[in-house]
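Quick start: read one record
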Amino acid sequence: HTFGGRITNRMGPERKAGWIVPFDFSIEYAWQTGPTGRTIDASWDWLGTTIPSPEGNVRAYREKVHYDSYGFAADAGWTFFSLVRVGAEYNQASGDSNRSDGVSSTFNSLFPTGHAFYGQADLVGFQNIKAASSSLTFFLGKFGKLKLGYWDVQKDKLEDGWYDASGVLRAGESTESYYNTRYGTQDAAGYRASAF
């Protein structure tokens, strides 16, 4: 389930008529909750309790994985003489710091692509990011407009990976393994995490 809201001054009949408001802003927030449909071994069962079954010993306790994620976006700008707009933007979509527990904290992007939102190259999507931008937009009359923007995009959680514009996890782009073991180190059981 996704719940959210938006506050903006970019709507109304004057905007549809082409009138440019000197100061414009937009603030959006979305929160996701509910079951993912997956069931995993209980993360709270530290002893790894098992019971016998025809297939061999199986874990005694299971838990349902649920969503607990958020997305936030804020954008503001000032237009000078209806010719040039100076803007700034900040976006954050939560990432998952522990992919082996019963909570999925990576924001599930609501749309299949973030094209044009985080740069035209479509290198990242709206999942596990903190992104800041500054921009200049030139209004060129009948020729349209020209927007120049600079983006600084970082991971929200280093343990989670990078996601492409369509929401697919990019393989090998995480600093941690599935079990949150840093690559090139040994975990408690003595297994070495590998990027491959």
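Confidence is low (pLDDT under 50) at residues 182-196.
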